[in-house]
């Protein structure tokens, strides 16, 4: 119980994604899951998880694995990702073996790739969706010396607490500014978008920021380019999703 309280205190007080990730990986490693992969999107469609550039993906898997599983988008055909996309809660990876005949050839290919990379035993966690387009999940890979029977036994003993720890970490991660963005917004771009979000006109923003309307338009254009969107309204929405605007600096 003390470990749970310490974890909750540290995660709820965390100021960065890195802080949360450090606590989450440590507690899962202490329980036998030494490699984990977290993914979250607010841009899910009926047939995809959205543009990979818009995904928040965190992992401590080695590059030999992530270069293919993430870089080549094998996750799109991963059997447990399919399960997670349609469900909430936790599931043993035994599900893959039990449903092998119902998997597509692509899903079987990804399952075989995982086996070759030593990603063979674990637990899938799927977080409750907060909107039709938002979804998050966590793949917990057991240590190399732990088979699926042992991983399931660990989850039977500690899964209830670990699941709640994962849920709290997930909720915290969705409130923190994204790090490692290819093109983060500048302070001026953030401020201009925030004023747009408040309903101000370009002239209003120019007066408030002490700039010319043309300079405000330049900041908004650069913000749209950085966020890879077509309109300023889309830029406000996407920047808000990424917690780049209307946030308190740590």
Description:
The protein has helices at residues 2-13, 17-30, 63-69, 79-86, 94-98, 105-116, 148-173, 187-197, 202-209, 213-227, 232-241; strands at 35-41, 56-59, 89-92, 122-126, 135-141. It is of the alpha+beta class and 250 residues long. Strands 2-1-5-4-3 form a five-stranded antiparallel β-sheet, with helices on both faces. A hairpin with an 8-residue loop joins strand 4 (122-126) and strand 5. Helix 2 (17-30) runs antiparallel to helix 7. The radius of gyration is 21 Å and the shape is elongated.
Task: Briefly say what this structure is.
With 250 residues, the protein is of the alpha+beta class. It has helices at residues 2-13, 17-30, 63-69, 79-86, 94-98, 105-116, 148-173, 187-197, 202-209, 213-227, 232-241; strands at residues 35-41, 56-59, 89-92, 122-126, 135-141.
- Judging from the principal axes of the Cα atoms, what is the shape? elongated
Distance between the termini: 29 Å
Broad CATH class of the largest domain: Alpha Beta
User: What is the count of structural domains?
Assistant: 2
* Radius of gyration over all CA atoms, rounded: 21 Å
Number of helices: 11
Q: Which oligomerization state do the chains in this entry correspond to?
A: single chain
CATH architecture classification name of the largest domain: 2-Layer Sandwich
Uncertain parts: none
Q: Order of strands across the biggest sheet?
A: 2-1-5-4-3
Instruction: State the helicity in percent bands.
Output: 40-55%
Q: Main beta sheet: strand number and arrangement?
A: 5 strands, antiparallel
Mean pLDDT: 94
The helix/strand order is HHEEHHEHHEEHHHHH
Strand content: 5-15%
The chain-level structural class is alpha+beta
